[in-house]
Amino acid sequence: MQLNTLGMVHEFLRGNVKRGAFCIDATAGRGRDTALLCRLAGAGGRVLSFDIQPEALEQTRALLAQEGLCAEVIADSHANMGNYAPENSVDCIVFNFGRLPGGDPKIMTRAPSSVAALEAALRLLKPGGVMALALYYGGENGYEERDAILRFLRTADERRFSVFGCEWLNRRGDPPMPVFVWKEA
């Protein structure tokens, strides 16, 4: 495992996503998380991948085709994922909050839609389901979204959800934060 946020998130996914799982990549980006979820869930699983940027959708589709994987790639906001899956039906949801690396720096996830997406995600997770978040912040992104997400997650009902957030204490700048959520079985 790489000792960075992405490595931690991927290790978490490998340990929690089983064959046949129903997964959502709420922020497709370059498609790497979508591809990993497809490999982990296998042919009997189902993966939905959301993004609002045509460039991200194209790159995700290209990566899936290159690797011979299949997912439903959807041009819609992560805040609308509840329109595509019933409540208590999803095994795993992944988020990368911030902006598309190398993409338009003016296009990034924002606090209002991200908190709405997390509200939907908590409803969509089935008992025993998990969620992994990578919070990219600082610089052009600022801190508003990070602070709103952490504030929201602190209000999750502790009888129904366990939320674990980490921060890098000895990394310079604004290193992304991994956050993990478990819905009680």
Count of helical regions: 5
Class inferred from helices and paired strands: alpha/beta
The rough form would be described as globular
Average per-residue pLDDT, rounded, comes to: 94
H-E string: HEHEHEEHEHEE
Helix content: 25-40%
| Main pleated-sheet profile | 7 strands, mixed
Radius of gyration: 15 Å
Poorly predicted tracts of residues: none
Total DSSP E strands: 7
Provide the spatial order of strands within the biggest beta sheet: 3-2-1-4-5-7-6
Question: End-to-end span in angstroms?
Answer: 28 Å
Strand content: 15-25%
- Describe the oligomeric state of these chains in a short phrase: single chain
Describe the structure.
It is globular, with a radius of gyration of 15 Å. It has helices at 5-16, 32-41, 54-67, 111-124, 144-153; strands at 22-25, 46-51, 72-75, 90-97, 125-135, 161-165, 177-183. It has a 7-stranded mixed sheet, sandwiched between helices. The chain is an alpha/beta fold and 185 residues long. The model has no long low-confidence stretch (mean pLDDT 94).
